[in-house]
Design brief:
The protein is globular, with a radius of gyration of 20 Å. By secondary structure, it is an alpha/beta fold.
């Protein structure tokens, strides 16, 4: 393993690595991400990067915060992109570290285009998206052949901070058996209303996973019609993922973290095996 790690490329002077930090647990970093942390002169990181990940930076590396959080003072995206260009032109080895995957609602595409426009060489290092890894840590698979053959990943707000009008919520309600929502907690009530109006069952299973894969992870299981009220009552705060669909019920069998704490898991929460045997 050490020999393999030693053969991995490091960041060259004047280069930018657009890198995914995964959903939070440093154990979910890719080897290239760790290599980048160990070779960067400057690490420009966002609000969702866990502190334990930043501790892996090489001694002497400069850490620059460039986070964006809804409702709070935030760096503007054009300024962040141009800062990457500036640092690269200074000959720095630059690691742009973003929570999850840089190309999954992470605006990494915008930063990449700015680098191209300015002639800056770059590498893309994918990361585990919270919409997959975060759900897995909660014991919820995004797909399961007994419940769904498709999944939709949707942002809960647009560039203005409001519920996206560009999303056909009625079509989504009818056509996506599993819906995974990023950055949706603020608008969960309005999103639920639109999905229900579009034909989604008000009692559809919902899970909200806050601070996924970290020591502070919290999971709330509820229903679509009760989601907003239950989130408020539980005091759930961002960052959080929301998943809607039958796969939520599989948590009764797959909550591996809960099992470590003594939870008894149910082998077949969907009853599929029994139906197969009867058939």
């Amino acid at each position: 393993m050490n020999k393999l790690f030693a053969t991995l490329p490091g960041i060259e002077p004047g280069w930018v690595w657009l890198t995914g930090a995964g959903p939070g647990d440093p154990g979910l970093l890719t080897m290239l991400a760790v290599r980048g942390l160990g070779s960067a002169d400057v690490i420009v990181y966002d609000a969702l990067v866990d502190k334990s990940i930043l501790e892996l930076a090489r001694p002497g590396a400069v850490l620059e915060y460039a986070g964006k959080r809804g409702g709070k003072p935030s760096s503007k995206q054009p300024d962040i992109s141009l800062r990457l260009v500036q640092l690269a032109r200074e000959g720095k080895r630059v690691l742009r570290l973003k929570g999850g995957d840089p190309f999954v609602f992470g605006r990494g595409g915008e930063e990449a285009l700015t680098l191209v426009e300015n002639g800056i060489p770059f590498r893309i290092v994918p990361g585990i998206s919270a919409g997959i890894g975060g759900l897995a840590y909660a014991g919820i698979p995004v797909t399961h052949r007994d419940s769904n053959s498709a999944v939709a990943f949707v942002t809960g707000h647009d560039a203005t901070g409001e519920v996206p009008d560009s999303v056909d919520w009625a079509a989504l309600a009818k056509g996506a058996p599993v819906i995974v929502l990023y950055m949706a907690l603020k608008h969960i009530e309005r999103i639920a209303e639109r999905l229900i109006a579009g034909g989604r069952n008000p009692n559809a299973a919902v899970a909200v996973i806050a601070k996924a894969t970290t020591r502070e992870q919290r999971v709330l299981e509820t229903t679509l019609c009760r989601a907003a009220a239950d989130v408020a009552a539980a005091g759930i705060e961002p960052p959080a993922m929301v998943v809607i669909g039958e796969v939520v019920k599989l948590r009764a069998a797959m909550d591996w973290l809960g099992a470590m704490d003594g939870r008894k898991l149910i082998p077949d929460p969907l009853g599929q095996r029994q139906r197969d045997q009867v058939g």
